[in-house]
Amino acid sequence: MINAADGSILLLAPGHAEAGLRRATRRLARLLAEDGLPAHLAEPPAETGFATRLWWLRKQARRHHAHIVLSFAEEEHLLSAALPVTGLRRIWLQAHLPGWRANAAARRFWRLLPHLHRRARLIAATPAAREHLARAAGLPPESIALLPPPVNFPEPPPKVLAADLRRRDPVILFPGPLTRASQPGLLLKALHRLRDSAVSLALPAEGPQLRPIRHMLDSLALNERIIWLDSAALWPRWLERARVLCWPARIAPLPGPAVRALAAGLPVVGADVAGLRAALADSPCAGELVAVTDAEALAAALRRRLADPGDPAPRQALARRWSAQALLPRWRALLAGRS
Questions:
Q1: If you count Cβ atoms within 10 Å of the first and of the last residue's Cβ in the chain, which end, N or C, has fewer?
Q2: What ranges in 171-287 are assigned the alpha helix state H?
Q3: How many other CB atoms sit within 10 Å of the CB of residue 105?
Q4: Residue closest to 42 by CA, chosen among 10, 17, 68
């Protein structure tokens, strides 16, 4: 069992480009601390060189008497070099993304990984991430733990009836923000194919693609069917008003928005990527996944789910697998060296 005498757990938050992973890191740090483990969150300095980041990690490890460093995304390269420098007894690496940048640090990391694995535990959030990491590192998949961070939603989830969903206005909810990776343009093309003018789209007015999306709305004459949300932080409030969540992101390392929608009883329509596959678990009642660039298939799936959202209960049962209640004991066991 880990205790304060052994040292603390240092969780490294990913860079600002990985907002979902950063939120997951912060939440896990808070949950572990509330559960009695000496967990501390640290956010590496941005726009700095490798030597500076390495110095920063060593300083943080000493400051918090770190026994374990847990990283979610891009710090694997930093940690691989930090093993002999910081004097940490154990380091746990969490690999969520389908790959890393093809730079010198990445190449060094992959060369070191088979040797590093003797002193570090690798964790993947989804089966697809584990398979990718195993192939890239030349390690057996069973040597990599499969353990996602918990998703934040009310526990227990509110009771939702199928009749309640069918009575709602035909609103599609997009979690945002408006980025190239989240593909709001693909969703607008699908909405344009839904000729029913009663179907509306709740869209957060936040993100680098806001101006192009406004131009696209003008060209497709869809402005009257858009419900603008002031920020991406407001989309969860619409889980009780929308009929379907649509998230056609081409990159979804963690399926937080999809899991929160399932917990609220909504069907999910999205792109066929690893994070969403893990959330929907091949369950027909959970929703539908389509090819990443297929607007016609996205429109057809939305049409079906808007017409018949189905029974919310199985979807809420799927979401519970991602809850803090389900996952926190496994994280505690992992960090205490019992798994």
A1: N
A2: 184-193, 210-220, 256-263, 274-280
A3: 15
A4: 10
Domains located in the chain, CATH noted: 8-149+325-335 (3.40.50.2000), 162-321 (3.40.50.2000)
Q: What are phi and psi of 320, to 5 degrees?
A: -60, -20
Q: Which residue has the tokens 């205490």?
A: 336
Peptide bond before residue 38 is cis, with ω within 30 degrees of 0: no
Question: HSE on the CB side for 81, CA within 13 Å?
Answer: 18
What does the alpha-carbon distance between residue 145 and residue 121 come to, in Å, rounded to a whole number? Answer: 8
Segment 228-232 long-range contacts (CB within 8 Å, at least 24 positions apart): 228/203, 228/204, 229/176, 229/202, 229/203, 229/204, 229/205, 230/204, 230/205, 230/206, 231/204, 231/205, 231/206, 232/175, 232/176, 232/177, 232/204, 232/206, 232/207
Tokens of 118: 């003797």
Task: Tell me the CA end-to-end span of the chain in Å, nearest whole number.
Answer: 12
CA atoms within 13 A on the CB side of 28: 29
Instruction: Kindly list the averaged pLDDT for each block of 10 residues, start to end, along the chain of length 339.
Output: 62 67 83 87 73 78 80 56 54 48 55 59 79 77 86 90 95 93 96 91 94 96 95 86 96 88 97 92 94 96 96 96 92 74
What is the helix (H) or strand (E) element at residue 120, kind and residue range? strand 120-124
